Amino acid sequence: MSDFMQWLYAHYIKPQLDATPQGDYTFWFSLMDGEMTSDMREEFEKCQEFTAIHAFLLGLRTGQGLPALTK
Known about the structure:
Layout: H1 3-19, H2 26-35, H3 38-69
Helix pairs in contact: 1-3
């Protein structure tokens, strides 16, 4: 991944994820927080970073195709 995408994750995507209410998933997040070791947490955060960046990029690519559908 590019340095820009990692910067974008740290300065835009991650803060948005942190600010999003967990809603019905609060229970599952609390279970995970209590069970992870520090190594597991680091691995989880890297996987979350990868997934969030690619979901963001998918949203960009999908959004580019939407104007063609509205014509």
